[in-house]
């Protein structure tokens, strides 16, 4: 188990619960209790504690973007012209409101932001890039379209 989890008072049973939930977020408490050989109330209490502590942030269905009409996935590396906190905050607020932006990371190195986006087609992607490029804080955007995804997971290693 990762040292940070142990330092926060979590044990191997908590790790087993987290592993099981990462593999199947819809597993019932009864099935999980059988799997890790613990009573249902104990499993339920541990899950609630993991939620309260912020270890478990939520439960979601993982969708195939192509199956629902988002044929393109791309990464946008954005370099900022203005690094004042007000300018960056303004751009980030704009980015966070856009439903096609799946992830936004602030970076060190050449680019300042890395956005993971989806779009229905090239025209929609070009429109999104143009809208972002019009923001006064943006100096440059480099767009990389995903051709193939070999691995895409939300599963965190716990051991």
Automatic annotation (TrEMBL):
Residues 10-71 form the HTH asnC-type domain. It comes from the Bacteria. InterPro entries: ArsR-like_HTH (IPR011991), AsnC-type_HTH_dom (IPR000485), Dimeric_a/b-barrel (IPR011008), Tscrpt_reg_AsnC-like (IPR019888), Tscrpt_reg_AsnC/Lrp_C (IPR019887), WH-like_DNA-bd_sf (IPR036388), WH_DNA-bd_sf (IPR036390). The keyword Transcription applies. GO terms for cellular component: cytosol. PROSITE patterns: HTH_ASNC_2. One of its GO terms (molecular function) is sequence-specific DNA binding. Keywords: DNA-binding, Transcription, Transcription regulation. It holds the Pfam family HTH_AsnC-type. This is Lrp/AsnC family transcriptional regulator. It comes from Phototrophicus methaneseepsis.
């Amino acid at each position: 188990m990762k040292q940070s989890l142990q330092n926060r008072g979590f044990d191997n049973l908590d790790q087993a619960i987290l592993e099981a939930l990462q593999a199947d977020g819809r597993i019932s408490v009864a099935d999980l209790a059988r799997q890790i050989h613990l009573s249902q109330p104990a499993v339920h209490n541990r899950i609630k504690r993991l939620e309260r502590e912020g270890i478990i942030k939520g439960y979601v269905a993982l969708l195939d973007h192509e199956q629902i009409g988002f044929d393109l996935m791309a990464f946008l590396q954005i370099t900022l012209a203005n690094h004042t906190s007000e300018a960056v905050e303004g751009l980030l607020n704009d980015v966070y409101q856009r439903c096609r932006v799946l992830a936004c990371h602030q970076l060190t190195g050449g680019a300042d932001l890395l956005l993971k986006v989806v779009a229905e087609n090239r025209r929609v992607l070009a429109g999104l890039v143009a809208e972002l490029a019009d923001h006064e804080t943006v100096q440059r955007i480099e767009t990389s379209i995903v051709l193939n995804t070999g691995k895409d997971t939300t599963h965190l290693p716990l051991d």
